[in-house]
Design brief:
Elements (H helix, E strand, L loop, with lengths): L1 H6 L9 H8 L40 H15 L4 H8 L3 H10 L5
């Protein structure tokens, strides 16, 4: 919109009068160019001979949805001290669904 008004000031309406006053202050020989976007460059971090960097080891984490669901159910039950109604509410599922999942995952809480 800004670029259109700069290129053709006659399309501006009275509701843009403050904006138009700001445009009049611009020098006529100023030209507007669209901003260019450059891709981010990866950051390279050098050790520079320092041996104080600690060894990093990746821990294998399960991304299985069923494992995560079971883990959340167990956490909710512990949080609500075994009260299934409150755990189901906290999980956003019905009590019936919680009972079915407890049986499916063989959770005895």
């Amino acid at each position: 919109m800004f670029l259109e008004i700069v290129q053709n000031p006659s399309i501006a309406t009275s509701q843009h009068s403050g904006f138009m006053n700001d445009l009049k202050e611009l020098k006529p020989n100023e030209s507007f160019q669209p901003a260019s976007i450059t891709a981010a460059q990866p950051m390279v971090i050098h050790n520079n001979g320092h041996e104080d960097i600690h060894h990093h080891e990746e821990v294998e984490e399960s991304l299985n949805i069923m494992d995560k669901e079971k883990e959340l159910i167990v956490k909710a039950l512990k949080k609500h001290k075994g009260k299934r109604k409150d755990a189901a509410s906290d999980l956003g599922i019905s009590e019936r669904t919680l009972y079915r999942k407890l049986k499916e995952y063989d959770i005895n809480e």
